[in-house]
Specification:
This protein has a 3-stranded antiparallel sheet. The protein is about 45% helix and about 20% strand. By secondary structure, it is an alpha+beta fold. It is built from 3 helices and 3 strands; from the N terminus they run H-E-H-H-E-E. The protein has a single domain (about 1-75), classed as Winged helix-like DNA-binding domain superfamily/Winged helix DNA-binding domain (Arc Repressor Mutant, subunit A).
Amino acid sequence: MKVMLESIRRLVERLSPAPICEPCIGRRLDLPIDDALHAALGELAVERGFDRESGSCSLCEEHGRVIVRQDRRHAA
């Protein structure tokens, strides 16, 4: 799980400030879209600096739940 979490974190940080959805994360990292991926995204969203919200994915442009890295100015 830790390897998956770190891979997701790096991808989201690299795309920041653009939001990305769960299916695109799965495709980009060659991960199955399953409970483990969902749990990893939930854990990342609980950490300071990341949010899960409703929005449009910057890669596929589908509207739904996305994860984004918070702007550091507002994360304090």
